[in-house]
Amino acid sequence: MSRKLDESRRLQQRAESLIPGGVNSPVRAFKAVECEAPFIVRGQGSHIWDADGNEYVDYIGSWGPLILGHAEAGVLDAILGAAGNGTSFGASTPSEADLAELIVEAFPTVQKVRFVSSGTEATMSAIRLARAFTKRKYIIKFEGCYHGHADALLVKAGSGVATLGIPGSAGVLEEISQFTIALPFNDTEVLEQAFSKYRHQIACVIVEPVVGNMGCVPASGGYLANLRTITQRENTVLIFDEVMTGFRVAYGGAQELYGIKPDLTTLGKIIGGGLPVGAYGGSDEIMSLVAPLGPMYQAGTLSGNPLAMAAGIAQLTHLREKKTEIYPRLDALSAKLVEGVVAAAKEVGMTLCFNRVGSMFTWFFTEGPVTDWDSASKSDTAAFAKFFRAMLNGGIYLPPSQFEAAFLSAIHSQEDVQKTIVAARNSLRGR
Ligand code: HOZ
Fold it and tell me: Which of 284, 317, 350 is the last residue in one of the domains?
């Protein structure tokens, strides 16, 4: 099937004359998969429609937030209800504490939480807070992990940076990135070496406990526990960036799933029900440094925006009420999908490897295993791009990069999954 994309092409040309690359986030330009990006005009449940009327089964879900699917009735009602009372005040509103309470209840390591407007702001603020708390300069992050686009964190980053093959961003001063130590993920030995080299100088270790930004890459058995033991021993703050994994891999995020207690947690995506939001939180002791209680400054007019709060409350309340149904179903249906596509690849004589944690997953075009950036980057990205294009033509909307995780929602059906497996078989056969 070949899709008509005339209207999307026209919209792209118009956007290119006004917006760099025609996009407001680089991966959306579909450069790595060398095809035209459909302009999306509508989403309902697990499906989206483009400006030319083509329909797709969506496995991006706005890059994770839409765990209940597009235009979920409860979330929509909450947004419309809140909007009727005004869209922004730059003043405190009651719903902020309601969402905070849901988060504190779900994440026992979070006693206080501060809302911001994006995951980037959440991680940037958490790093500042860790430095304020420890009075140390250096931070450790891992190669292929992406924590938003703050200067200090654009070092060997995953996501769009990895997709476009940009080693680090232009405009980031060496004077700033010199305090960021990027280490291979899943390697305890190099971590110990860094701690011996920079003794008493490391403010924090920030990690995606299940990496979603070099494709989905889980921590190997014992690695997160090692991170916790070492950071505790060294009086270094451990930050779990749960912007993708929070309320996704389990209701209480990766820290609930693996039973590890970080000092600070960053959140985003799902807690805003598809509206712009981020958050960082931790113990009373650390969070008491945040202004106006303490000297660590961070602020924002749209922080705690009432529409985002209302959408987040509706989505999290739904998840909390139905969590014993939703998470096992997400896990089982995702397993069926991911393993079904791998079996289809085998049938046509092709080896794919996959990583999956609950409803977050990636098929890597390499024999694998994929455990870190080095092994992820061995993927055959040209083969991935060909697969991606064929899937898109077959009505399946996957992340347009080998180095981004895909997501399944609670509203995806057995039929969606079956359709996807059939499309994958056809796509791989025609490779
Ligand atoms: N690179 C982002 C997800 N990891 C994509 C953001 C977007 O394009 O919306």
Answer: 317
Final residue belonging to a domain, choices 317, 348, 363: 317
Claim to verify: residue 116 and residue 213 sit in the same structural domain:
yes
Q: 93 and 228, same structural domain?
A: yes
Assessment of whether the complete model's pTM goes beyond 0.85: yes
| Alpha carbon nearest to ligand 1 atom 6, residue | 25
Question: How many angstroms does the Cα of residue 227 sit away from the middle of ligand 1?
Answer: 27
- Determine which one of 112, 141, 156, 269 is catalytic: 269
Q: Which residues line ligand 1 (CB under 6 A)?
A: 25, 27-28, 63, 159-160, 213, 404
pLDDT tens digits, one per residue of 393-425: 999 999 999 999 999 999 999 999 999 999 999
Rounded CA separation 43/89 (Å): 29
Whether 282 and 174 map to the same domain: the answer is: yes
Mean pLDDT to the nearest integer, 314-338: 98
Task: Indicate the pairing of strand 237-241 with strand 360-364.
Answer: unpaired
DSSP label at residue 215: B
Q: What is the CB neighbour count within 10 angstroms for residue 194?
A: 18
Q: Where are the beta strands (DSSP E) in 322-413?
A: 353-357, 360-364, 396-397, 406-407
User: Tens digits of per-residue pLDDT, 227-278?
Assistant: 999 999 999 999 999 999 999 999 999 999 999 999 999 999 999 999 999 9
Bridge-based pairing state of the strands 264-268 and 217-218: unpaired
Do 56 and 150 fall within a single domain? no
Q: Are residues 205 and 259 in the same domain?
A: yes
Atom 4 (ligand 1) nearest CA = 159
* Residue 401 CA, closest ligand 1 atom number: 1
**Is the CB of residue 292 less than 8 Å from the CB of residue 121?**
no
CATH number at residue 366: 3.90.1150.10
pLDDT in tens, 144-181: 999 999 888 888 877 777 676 666 788 888 888 899 99
Our answer to whether residue 397 is catalytic in this structure is no
Confidence of residue 351 (pLDDT cuts 50, 70, 90): confident
Query: Which range marks the domain in which residue 108 is found?
Result: 73-317
In a domain, 134, yes or no: yes
Tally of domains in the chain: 2
Active site annotation includes 241: yes
**Ligand 1 nearest-atom number relative to CA 27:** 8
Average pLDDT over residues 102-118: 98
| Residue 306 falls inside a structural domain | yes
CA gap 343, 360 in Å, rounded: 19
